[in-house]
Amino acid sequence: MHQSVLLNKAVSYLNLRKGAVVVDATVGGGGHSEEILKSILPGGRVIGIDADLEALAIARDRLKSFGGSFTPVNDNFRNIDRILKIQNIKNVDAVLLDIGISSYQLDDASRGFSIRSDASLDMRMDRSSGITAYDVVNKYKEEKLSEIIENFGEERFHNRIARFIKDARERKAIETTGELAEIVKMAVGYKYRNLKIHPATRTFQAIRIFVNDELGALEEALKSAIFWLKPGGRIVVISFHSLEDRIVKNMFKGYSKLSVLKIITKKPLIPEREEVINNPRSRSAKLRVAERIEQ
Q: Residue 161: CA atoms inside 13 Å, Cβ hemisphere, count?
């Protein structure tokens, strides 16, 4: 079972009441939505959005006992405006965004997200559209690859990694995650020998973020979601790396200066030690909260 990160903190900070309308913009396996529904019924409703059709099917099955109180929507959360208009929603009481990749996606080797499983280079959240990791790795120029790995992975050895990828694909196409991980390891492996993370971790992160335009989608989703909130409504965002957290922090700060939002968490909240022990994937999570100001 997928373990929802910062579950109790997130639901608590949403400041829910019975009858509330809530957007779970990254529903994943439905863990957060399940707890939200318990807090807002009777009379409440959750709009659960996910670009990953397979994750959404898992959430739909998990939440079937809640009937029509849970509305699953297969779409990218950047389209929240369109989604809520189609659902005839006028405004919402709360929005939750749990950014990043889910345990389901990591554990499904066929998705190509994990370094530790050899699979086709895909990495798409929505497998029905867009470029794949294979396209990026095998078709993009060395300079563009280096830029992607530096900007989205914050990888200091981006130039060397891009060069090794280019040299490798000139011999044969790079087809699997295992092949890519080994190439990156050869490029910089010895420099990571004293670190706990795999040498290819930042490169995989960078390619995944680029393939799914995750940072662009986050910015669009935040800008839209804030203005769907009722006065007093809250937005809770859980991010997993510095690029995401920086976007959330800066956007909250910007809208706070415009008297649109009140920042509830001056510093991001992080998981307790016990949660990290039970769910190591939660270790990098940061939670920020803001509240819509009445105007």
A: 31
* Residue 261 near residue 231, CB atoms below 8 Å: no
Residue type, 274: E
DSSP string, 190-237: GGGTTSSS-TTHHHHHHHHHHHHTHHHHHHHHHHHHHHHEEEEEEEEE
**CB-based burial, 99-134: b 16+ in 10 Å, e otherwise:** bbbbbbbbebeebbbbbebbbebbbbbebeeeebbb
State how far the Cα of 117 lies from the Cα of 125, in Å rounded to an integer: 17
Of 139, 194, 190, which Cα lies nearest the Cα of 165? 139
Helix (H) or strand (E) holding 59: helix 53-62
Q: How far apart are CA 37 and CA 66, in angstroms?
A: 8
Q: Contact 84/228 with Cβ under 8 angstroms?
A: yes
- Nearest residue to 266 (alpha-carbon basis) of 286, 243, 284: 286
Q: What letter does residue 293 receive in the DSSP assignment?
A: P
| Domains with residue ranges and CATH for the chain | 7-104+214-292 (3.40.50.150), 114-212 (1.10.150.170)
Q: What is the pLDDT of residues 89-120, one digit of tens each?
A: 999 999 999 986 655 555 566 666 677 778 88
Place of tokens 């509240």: 291
Full DSSP string of 256-290: HHTTSEEES-SS-B---HHHHHH-GGGTT-EEEEE
> Tens digit of pLDDT for each residue in 213-232?
999 999 999 999 999 999 99
